[in-house]
Amino acid sequence: xxxxxxxxxxxxxxxxxxxxxxxxxxxxxxxxxxxxxxxxxxxxxxxxxxxxxxxxxxxxxxxxxxxxxxxxxxxxxxxxxxxxxxxxxxxxxxxxxxxxxxxxxxxxxxxxxxxxxxxxxxxxxxxxxxxxxxxxxxxxxxxxxxxxxxxxxxxxxxxxxxxxxxxxxxxxxxxxxxxxxxxxxxxxxxxxxxxxxxxxxxxxxxxxxxxxxxxxxxxxxxxxxxxxxxxxxxxxxxxxxxxxxxxxxxxxxxxxxxxxxxxxxxxxxxxxxxxxxxxxxxxxxxxxxxxxxxxxxxxxxxxxxxxxxxxxxxxxxxxxxxxxxxxxxxxxxxxxxxxxxxxxxxxxxxxxxxxxxxxxxxxxxxxxxxxxxxxxxx
Amino acid sequence: xxxxxxxxxxxxxxxxxxxxxxxxxxxxxxxxxxxxxxxxxxxxxxxxxxxxxxxxxxxxxxxxxxxxxxxxxxxxxxxxxxxxxxxxxxxxxxxxxxxxxxxxxxxxxxxxxxxxxxxxxxxxxxxxxxxxxxxxxxxxxxxxxxxxxxxxxxxxxxxxxxxxxxxxxxxxxxxxxxxxxxxxxxxxxxxxxxxxxxxxxxxxxxxxxxxxxxxxxxxxxxxxxxxxxxxxxxxxxxxxxxxxxxxxxxxxxxxxxxxxxxxxxxxxxxxxxxxxxxxxxxxxxxxxxxxxxxxxxxxxxxxxxxxxxxxxxxxxxxxxxxxxxxxxxxxxxxxxxxxxxxxxxxxxxxxxxxxxxxxxxxxxxxxxxxxxxxxxxx
Lengths: 378, 378
Hints:
Helix content of chain A: over 70%
Oligomer: homodimer
Subcellular location (chains A, B): Cell membrane
Catalytic activity (chains A, B): L-glutamate(out) = L-glutamate(in); chloride(in) = chloride(out)
Distance between the termini of chain A: 21 Å
Radius of gyration of chain A: 38 Å
Largest interface: A-B, 48 and 48 residues
Strand content of chain A: under 5%
Transmembrane segments (chains A, B): 142-163, 170-189
Family (chains A, B): Belongs to the tweety family.
Keywords (chains A, B): Cell membrane, Chloride, Chloride channel, Disulfide bond, Glycoprotein, Ion channel, Ion transport, Membrane, Transmembrane, Transmembrane helix, Transport
């Protein structure tokens, strides 16, 4: 037997020692990294659902303001131009002037009632700003997790490579990296646990908290806020009264215009144009009014609220728990790796036959020993 | 050198031959299985978004029908009881009877206008049925993929185990299983490609197709369907006319009731009770009317349509592409495994020192050879 032929049991032992590392180093973090990517994507989905619900709610709120503003302006314009022209044209018939004045009063009343419906006007809290802040934080959180996941993946792969190639420097570097990633993993476990506890505390009964917070931030009456946040049969529409009053005012303008059309047009042909224009304005106003009724109803805004809550309390929380599982798995696997790597290193044969080509350092003590052996054999 | 000490290069070769299999057998399908689980969950999310949007749309449609039915019944009841009582009480004053008859006519007209708003009544297509069908198919699809993923995972793990333990029967069984899973993978690639092509074809321009299909299934007018499916400024509300007319009828009932209250109550105290009850009915009807305006507006149903499309064309399609990637990866890895397993088997040493305990079959030809050798050495 030559001195450089190793005993078969000895040659087999690094291969056998590789197996548990291969399982621990590729199995647990492999599953962990998959879980981590899934959790990261779920959290991101949940947060983007939250911010898109906020944007949709903002769109509804700003559309309410726009429609109210537009309708009030349109009614004011009609009062200023067509109704004034009509009054001048019909000035000789007192009862027609009275009907015109009645229509003007009703139009002014309707404009005043509608004005009060733009409840979000002048509120400093902007859902767009909240959505932007949330998206900003989420982008960095997402990126940080992707980097952490890639780091764990790289550490696992290079540790396996180091074990397979039995390269000592790679194993040393990866031991140091594992220590770093272990610290990061434990840190992220702590952060995730704190966030998950806070989030599930919030999610167990969000309505009261969100209602109080929004009331503080916006200064809106609790009637309006509970109508939108609860949106059930028990809470009546706080705009019902105003809506009914403006609806009656619009219907009364309509009947007065119809009366004027019947009475005035046969006698005063100049009254036809402003009357038709007023009817058109009334039709457009009624369409806007119906849109406003639809926008003010709690269904749409409450659905956004529900969707934001679902995003936060279902998807984001679930993703967070998966991220926590990933962090725990990777921390466990890295701790195992850290404990076993020095022992695996001790099992590396002092000189190996299938060494990697990187190790051709002439000042390597093994190489110089071999050189001395080769010289003496000549 | 003893005959049973293998040459070091020979002893090392199975270890070296293991590496590429370990990478191919654990790396590619490992990533593939992660991608597959992710894709399966994304597809499932998308389909559940579709079915929840369908359920929400169904809720809106059935609420419209319910509110219309309830309001029409309430108005009919008021006409039958309170207005008839009022007519009898006021029968001595003809002008008050005329006002009451006017209110009755308006109430009947309002009921008739509102009746026409229940557009989904008598339509045979039920979104709930569609949602249930979709959920049923999706449940089996999800389960089939989870089973396929687990099968691939098990085949990979047992192949690795067979290679590590150098157990021939395990490698043979896993070769047969790999062949089976390879066929399943290629089959699923074909199914996924066909579904993805069909789905992306549908998703490139869904509106026209869905509109035509719904029109065929429901027989509703294209006015109503394009109002809900397009929901932009260009399409006017097909219920606008009816809504405005019923609103005017309700306002006119209100003004007639107010007139009656002023005129009749001082003289006929018996008129007070039915009049107050009518006012209450009118208030409730106006609330229901506002709810109906909100429900009939295209916002809510169009949002459900958009959410169903997003579920199908974003999440489900994305998930499907990920599933296709998984199937391709696993098919590739299994094909590689199938090509290399027989060669790896040939490299197994004819008798191995760290054999597993399962292989203690006395009728094993190697065992009997060893037995003969042992006998001859005695």
